[in-house]
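The records we work with from here on pair a chain with its fold. The integers have meaning only within a learned vocabulary of local backbone shapes. A complete example follows; check for yourself that the lines match position by position.

:::
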Amino acid sequence: MINRQPKKYIQPIRYTDIPFGNEVRKEYSKTILEKAPILPKPLEYEDIDNSFFDFVKDDIDIVIDGKIVPTFTLYSSQRFSEYSQTWNYTDEDDNLLMNFKTVNRDTNPSFGENQGGLWNIPGERKYRLLQRTVLDDNGTESYEVYSMKQPYTVDLLYRINFVTNIFENLNKFNQRINDLFKARQCYIRPNGHYIPMVIDEINDESVYSIEDRKFYVQSITIKVMAYIIHENDFQVERIPKRIIIATEGEKSKKPKISIDEYNTDEFDFTKIEMTIDFDEFIDKAKFNSDTDFVVEQIKTENVRNYRIFVNGTLIYHQDGFKIKNNDEIKIKIFPYEVNKKSVVYLQGYNPNKIFESNNVTEKVSDEIEKFEDIKIE
């Protein structure tokens, strides 16, 4: 015999209250949601335009001759050469100053791909975001339910033009663009929403002559895959947590009502006991019932377990069951000793036969049976 000792289990003792493992992850989620707003902020075209302009101004920052290249907004989709004739960005001698960026957007945004090209659910249904308990001024509690409509997606095409009179500056601009989009997508955060952007195309509009001066223009088209949330898409409802209903009735005295109870034990159903005998080494019985029968109790002899099927359906007999006339009954038993006889007793009553216990008929033939003994072998 080999003596085996149980494995030793050592419970590590924590000497500090510094959280670790799952405690740290739960703490992170609390920290992230601690100052988070209950509802997201609205997001419209103007918010996206301002955020994209800040992205071009701050993130696509290019320094030439110790100066940051300025950024301007063009409110049309015309080519830059059409603007250059009336451009106000000039020096004291009215010469066009180079090295600047311009931003403009197509005025016809189309259905977006932010959700993989999926359409919204039809209708103006509002979806629940959050439910919380608040305390009213009168000291009662209510539920505040926050809901909003489903945002819809749009694709906005922005065009960034970089204008310079030195060809090498185009390389700086192009390298900066490809560095920002090296993971294919880049993001802006208008009103706290992360909106992805991808490069749609890169064009060259270089070598134009304005008063015998050459300049270079590189155009980058960026697709902003956004979604729109209007300010009136949100809804806040306050639902009472508990409603107190009070009724005021009449003050007159109510009439007294007395109820007389009568003994109804004088009527009873005809009792039935159905006996099914199983010979040695027999564990199945099949027969058709010739009467309606409500089984209330089952007794057995030399039966460890049994199953009863009515018209092929297994019956859960713990609370009793009903058998109708001509129903097919199958009984499967599991005897303690297979070499001995077994018996199953189905005890109940016939719901169609009722007799009065105190009634005595003139003729014996008119008397209703009070007990039926049905034996099946």
